[in-house]
């Protein structure tokens, strides 16, 4: 019984630290994804402006979203 109580006490001490760490990691991942989108999307759209393809910008956005999906992981 004492081991069980000790385990619960230990768990209650480390659980909030893990939850806080997850929030920080999630924010870093979002920042990495945003940086990836900005880095890839702008040059792609600039290329679209020189072409007359109407779907080019939409394709750039979709490709960028797919390429940056795993950024920061």
From TrEMBL:
<protein>
    <recommendedName>
        <fullName>Cysteine rich repeat protein</fullName>
    </recommendedName>
</protein>
<keyword id="KW-0732">Signal</keyword>
<feature type="signal peptide">
    <location>
        <begin position="1"/>
        <end position="19"/>
    </location>
</feature>
